[in-house]
Structure formats: structure tokens, C-alpha cells
Amino acid sequence: MAEPAELPVLEARLRELGPVVVAFSGGADSAFLARVAHDVLGADGAHAVTAVSPSLAPEERADCEALAQEWGLRWTPVFTDELADPAYSANDGERCYHCKASLMDALGPLAADAGATVVLGVNLDDLGDHRPGQRAAAEAGAVFPLVDAGFTKDDVRAWSRRLGLRTWDKPAAACLASRVPYGTAVTLGVLESVAKAESALRALGYRQVRVRHYGDLARLELEGPDLERAVAARAEVVAAVRSAGYTYVTLDLEGFRSGNLNQALRES
Questions:
Q1: Which pLDDT band holds residue 119 (cuts at 50, 70, 90)?
Q2: 165 FRET partner, CA 20 to 30 A, in 25, 62, 94, 133?
């Protein structure tokens, strides 16, 4: 078993890189990175920036702002429009590449003006999945300090808990476009439907949830313990999802699996 990553190693890496612009989505990884960068480099040396677009759930954008206020981060929202890129909207296997390219187009000038390095909260566990966005970010000069310091997802959560960060057990989140099967066009309406359905389910108390979009059918992925609960409360679950415009509501009995739509790429 590998030894747990050590916080001083990450801190040293950030000092080497500083100043930095942190791509701050509000998830456990980027939040941890933003907070440690702030603690090490201060507000002058660590700038947390959130890319705001229809692919970011409204609750996530609000939580980024809340975290920045709680932790005293220097924080800026920037607006990106990846939907204007036909290559992104087409939603082939390289969609994430175009998304991260758009992100770097927004963060790059901020970093250049400050003589800073763009850093992303990619950890070692992220390297094993289909993540073309990592390639786009690296090609544009972004650095992954968590990878450099040997941090896994478990390390991020463990150190976040030790530091008292409320994000230590935050459910995994990904852009809303990841709910759309490859080959199905990503549109504003689709993203809004997914966002509304997931928000309605979270309001019912389901923390880890994915609404996979198949036209007028929604396939719900919930954590194992929530599956029986959802079946027992199926009337309110169906009503919540239908409020987002779906006609048919199905429950995936395999439960929540991050990135499971990538299986289609592995099988092609």
C-alpha cells in the first residue's frame, strides 16, 4: 500500500509554482487546492477563479462564492461559453478537451497578467479515466500540483478533514454535460433540464446523484443506500424529475458510478 501523501510536499510544490491561478469548481479537490494555495501563498499569490457557464450547476457556483467568503479567498467568477463551440456541442469523445480549452482561454490571460501559473485540482486517481480535458489543460500550460505531490482522492479528503474543511466529504461533482451520452448534442435546454432534475432530487435529501439524459427519459444514479429509499418514495422522486420536463423516470440498479458514460468509448 502506498504511503499517504504529505501536506508539506504539496505546500513546497505550490511555493515553487507561485503565484498561481486555481481553477476553482468548488469540488473537494479544487477546494482543497485553493485553500492550501491561499494558506501558503496568501491572497496576493493565490487567485481562485470559477468558470461560470450553463454546464456548472447553479448550486456549485453559489457554493464557490460561499467558500471564498468563508475562507477569505481572492475569488473571481469568469463567464465561459463553450456551448458556442460546435465541437463541444457535438459531444463526441473529445468534448472535455474543448471544455478545458475554453477554460484555459479564460484563465490564461488572468495568469499571464499576474505572471502566474494555472493549476487544476487533478489527483492521481483522475489519471486512469478518459479525461481529454487534462490533455487540453496541460497543452495550454496548466500544472497539476496534487499529482506532483502524490495525492489521491482519499488523500485529498483525509487532509481536508484534518484541516477542518467542510468540503472533505462533499459528493463528487462533474460538469452537467457529463450526464449526456456521447453523440447526443449538448444544448442549453438539456443542461437546464439536468440541473433542475438534480436540484429537485437533492432537495429530497439525495446527496450523490446523477441524472443521465436520454431525451424525454431520465436514468437516475444514486448511491447504494439510497436505492431502496428511492423505490419506496418513487412517487415523489418521479414528480421531482418530471418537474424538470422528463416524461419517463428510471432508476439504475447499479447505482452511482462516476464517469460511467465513458464505457461507451471503451466499447467502441
A1: very high
A2: 133
